């Protein structure tokens, strides 16, 4: 563990654990640097007739710090990420992203626990600058190592800097359940609902003369997942999302299937693969909100990414990566495709 993390973890564990001597701590630092070839640096759509997207080179760096402090009955977990990307020609796509999360939990006996969690993500630069903040209180039930249930209640605030009409905030409730069938197989289910209040007026539906008032959305997410941990690590997750709005053109339904796999190949090479398929439907026939992407590199409904990693020392890995993201808009015959090739190193310092 890096010594720079110890004072913070020791303080947090002392506050939650009741004493420095009873506290145990652990943490890690990791840094990644990559040279990228981006086939669609400006993230443009194409109609198949005009000149296609432009390719550019970019340098990407990402640093991550994680820490955990554990007392007799309490635990504090923290994580912070800082990433940046610099393009050669498309400087307007340069980005700086920060994300952090801090969670504290307290055991109430052998089966129940309560806690509080806060998270923030801030993206600057490029065409999608935003800040996403949230806080949650939760209760957990874990009668044994096979079953774990968490119910949470929180609030969220989202600020979309290019267009503040897309800013929203409101309460959220959620539930997460995990069940281990055995040491290799596990299942999970999750659900979440949030009320999103906007500062703008809702658009009236055709034929309705009465003003609908302020825009108000309801966001529902539900899904299930399966995980296998053996010689090959596999995971498969299905999620359904419904955004129901009182503003015409803002309602959307989405289905998303995501899978990932990891396997150790000869010569100490690790192969990691991840793919997703998405299907969206807009009952009003149009979708008026600006395109807001909350996850880095998740521009399209469909994606596939591969990474090969091989250790070159005890703490440094050499990595080769490739990813493709795509989607198609049938109403106007526009398509979006982007490929990113990368080569770089990952360094880690972990006790």
UniProtKB/TrEMBL annotation:
Q: What organism does the record attribute this protein to?
A: Corallococcus llansteffanensis
Q: Which domain of life is it from?
A: Bacteria
Question: What name is this protein filed under?
Answer: DUF481 domain-containing protein
Signal is among the record's keywords: yes
Instruction: List the signal peptide residues.
Output: 1-22
Q: What are the entry keywords? A: Signal
């Amino acid at each position: 563990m890096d010594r720079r993390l110890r004072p913070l973890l020791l303080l947090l564990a002392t506050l939650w654990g009741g004493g420095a001597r009873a506290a145990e701590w652990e943490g890690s630092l990791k840094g990644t640097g990559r040279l990228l070839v981006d086939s669609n640096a400006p993230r443009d759509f194409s109609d198949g007739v005009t000149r296609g997207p432009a390719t550019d080179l970019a340098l990407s760096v990402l640093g991550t710090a994680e820490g955990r402090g554990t007392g007799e009955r309490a635990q504090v977990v923290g994580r912070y990420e800082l990433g940046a990307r610099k393009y050669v020609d498309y400087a307007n796509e340069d980005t700086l992203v920060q994300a952090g999360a801090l969670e504290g939990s307290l055991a109430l006996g052998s089966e129940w626990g309560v806690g509080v969690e806060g998270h923030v993500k801030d993206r600057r630069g490029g065409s999608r600058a935003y800040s996403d903040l949230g806080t949650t209180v939760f209760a957990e039930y874990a009668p044994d190592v096979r079953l774990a249930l968490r119910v949470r209640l929180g609030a969220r605030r989202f600020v979309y800097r290019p267009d503040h009409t897309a800013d929203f905030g409101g309460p959220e409730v959620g539930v997460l359940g995990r069940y281990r069938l055995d040491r290799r197989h596990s299942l999970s289910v999750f659900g979440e609902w949030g009320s999103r209040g906007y500062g703008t007026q809702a658009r009236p539906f055709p034929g309705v003369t009465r003003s609908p008032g302020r825009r108000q959305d309801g966001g529902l997410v539900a899904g299930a997942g399966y995980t296998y941990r053996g010689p090959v690590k596999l995971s498969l997750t299905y999620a359904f999302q419904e955004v129901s709005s009182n503003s015409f053109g803002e309602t959307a339904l989405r289905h998303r299937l995501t899978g990932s796999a990891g396997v150790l190949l000869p010569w100490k090479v690790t192969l990691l693969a991840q793919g997703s398929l998405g299907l969206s439907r807009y009952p009003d026939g149009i979708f008026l909100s600006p395109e807001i992407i909350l996850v880095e590199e998740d521009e399209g409904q469909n994606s596939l990414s591969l990474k090969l990693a091989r250790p070159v020392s005890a703490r440094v890995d050499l990595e080769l990566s490739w990813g493709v993201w795509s989607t198609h808009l049938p109403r106007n015959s526009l398509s979006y495709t982007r490929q990113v090739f990368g080569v770089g190193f990952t360094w880690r310092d972990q006790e």
